[in-house]
Each structure stands twice: as C-alpha cells, then as structure tokens.
Amino acid sequence: MQIHSLDKAHFISELQCGTSLNRAVEQGRRADFALMLSMFSHDCRETCVVEEVNSAVSDEAALRQRFNVAKAQKLQGDLDDYQTSATIAHQFHQGGMASAKLQHYSTPEPLDYQPQNTLGFSEDIYQN
Questions:
Q1: CA dist., res. 90 & res. 96, Å (int)
Q2: pTM of the predicted model, to two decimals?
Q3: Which of 37, 56, 69, 71 qualifies as a cystine partner to 64, CB 3.0-4.6 A?
Q4: CA distances from 2 to 30, 49, 63 (A)
Q5: ∠ at Cα 14 (10, 17), nearest 5°?
Q6: Nearest 5°: phi and psi at 124?
C-alpha cells in the first residue's frame, strides 16, 4: 500500500517524505528506498533558498530610534547617575514594584557605582 502512494508523489527534498525514508532503511526495504531516491529532484535550484539581502547599513542609534528603545544600560555609573537611581527608588516607594520597573526600563540605571577619587583602586583597598 505504501508503494502505491509513493508512486504518485513527486518529491523535491527528503523533508517531504518524512520518516518513510528512514523506515525503509531500518527495515531493509531496498525497493522502497530506491524508489524514493529516484523521485528526488536533481535540480538544485528547486531546493536552495534564494532571498534578496537587504544591504542597508543601520547603526545601533538608528535602530534604537526606529523601535523607540531606551539607551543601553551603563555598566559603571557616574555622579550624574545617582539622580536616576533616586528617581527609581522614589517610584518604588510611591507606586510599588511595577512603577519602579517601568521607570528603570524607560531610563535604566547603571549596574555598578564605583567609588570616586580612589586613584583606580577598589574601595576596600583604598579604605585600608
């Protein structure tokens, strides 16, 4: 029964036969395997994907403006960034966690605040 359904099929790639090809190999059915292989197309243009590539150069700033995404989160904060953290803390106390998250996602605060004027040393070494 399976041979009759394969006779009428016109395969282009092995993805269209599903597990039939694998089962024919496992069960040792050489005739079914040969029949399925003979129905594959020999024209490589039928199976390869051809798409137009958009080569327009777009930088990060243009993409952020296009999709209305906030600035990237800084890794290290400055003295000017303390106001951002204070605003997020105020939003947390006034409106809860959802308000603080919204404030953080609109103007992200830095991940870390390094001590200032320590000549490049960490705070532990400088205080020692």
A1: 9
A2: 0.44
A3: 69
A4: 14, 30, 53
A5: 60
A6: -65, -45
